[in-house]
Specification:
Blueprint: H1 11-20, H2 27-37, E1 42-45, H3 52-66, E2 72-73, E3 86-87, H4 90-93, E4 96-99, H5 103-117, E5 124-127, H6 133-142, E6 146-149, H7 151-159, E7 170-173, H8 176-181, H9 185-193, E8 200-205, H10 210-219, E9 224-227, H11 250-260, E10 266-269, H12 273-285, E11 290-293, H13 299-311, E12 316-319, E13 334-335
Parallel strand pairs: 1-8, 1-9, 4-6, 4-7, 5-6, 7-8, 10-12, 10-13, 11-12
Antiparallel strand pairs: 2-3
Length: 336
């Protein structure tokens, strides 16, 4: 399927694709949307930036719109009275689960799914750790169709019996290799083990480490495997330069790249929060508009930094690896 018009998706989803501004499917979308709509288990391997989110978002949105949750009837209020009104049990309503490594990615994926399902009755929410539990709990208990969340918070909600996987029909593990790198294997395994027998599973990743291969062999059923290019390689439209330089000269080089070469849309990843802070301070001291993201920043501070960078208000974004994978930021021109 070389165009979105050829894909057998609900009209609402087609409008959502147009709303997001996509005109033609990427290679992984061409090859994996069909099998997912056909309810196959899948493994999607492709470099970062090749459209994996939409590759599972389109079929997930389509499936939930085309297969609404069952209606139940409330009990009669008095003997001999009329039957109660119909309603959807919140636990039965939850049929889609997407697991992602970071809260920023959870929010971004949830927003794309909302765009794809806008105009339907499908409701999407995102949950993540180091944030107030009560609002997230209340949204799930009120009833949603899709939850996008980080492994730790999902496990916490499961342990509290707020999040039930009993009626999940579609599970997506996104950026699986990244989650394993972050130590989330036990949480992911617990989620997979608690999935019902009648379900669809999809693994998406840039690479396929042995631990993920083992999970796929254990939990997926004859999956359709789609690999785009060499999935250990960066996207083809990305150029690379290597600078061999002493540690003490790194900040000077960064300042040269940004100040002297007048670059904008620069993301700089640092190994520690301390190094990120040093970079942030250096740019501010040279009059460069900069945002800072790391684990000690509040959710509002992190989202504001992302928004200012995406809008072009800040020329530079300095971050630890909490923002290293999966985020879609069109403003990016240089990654260090």
């Amino acid at each position: 399927m070389e165009t979105f018009d050829e894909m057998p998706v609900a009209p609402v989803v087609r409008l959502g694709i147009e709303r997001l501004g996509f005109e033609a499917p990427t290679p992984i979308q061409q090859r994996i949307i069909g099998p997912m709509i056909a309810d196959r288990d899948v493994i999607g391997l492709a470099p970062t930036g090749t459209g994996k989110t939409l590759a599972y978002g389109i079929p997930l949105a389509h499936q939930l719109i085309e297969n609404p949750p069952p209606l139940a009837r409330r009990e009669k209020k008095r003997k001999g009275g009329d039957a109660g009104s119909k309603y959807v049990d919140p636990r039965r309503r939850l049929r889609g689960l997407v697991v992602v490594p970071t809260r920023e990615l959870a929010q971004q994926v949830a927003e794309e799914l909302r765009s794809l399902t806008k105009g339907s009755l499908v409701k999407v929410t995102a949950v993540w750790g180091k944030a107030a539990l009560k609002p997230q709990r209340e949204r799930i208990e009120a009833g949603v169709d899709i939850v996008v969340g980080t492994p730790g918070r999902l496990r916490e909600l499961m342990d509290l019996d707020v999040l039930s996987l009993a009626f999940i029909r579609h599970l997506v593990i996104d950026e699986g290799d990244r989650m394993l790198d972050m130590g989330f294997l036990p949480q992911i395994k617990t989620i997979l083990e608690r999935m019902p027998e009648d379900r669809q599973m999809a693994f998406f990743s840039a690479t396929m480490p042995p631990a993920m291969e083992s999970l796929a062999r254990t939990f997926l059923r004859e999956p359709q495997r789609v690999e785009i290019g060499r999935h250990t390689r960066v996207a083809e439209n990305v150029g690379n330069k290597l600078y061999e330089i002493d540690d003490v000269l790194k900040v000077a080089l960064l300042l040269h790249l940004v100040v002297e070469e007048k670059r904008r849309g620069v993301i700089i990843f640092c190994r520690t929060r301390r190094r990120a802070g040093w970079g942030d301070a250096a740019f501010r001291n040279h009059g460069i508009s900069v945002g800072l993201i790391h684990g000690d920043k509040s959710q509002n501070q992190r989202m504001r930094a992302l928004e200012q960078f995406t809008e072009g208000s800040n020329a530079v974004l300095v971050a630890t690896d909490v923002a290293a994978r999966g985020l879609h930021i069109p403003a990016v021109r240089t990654v260090v």
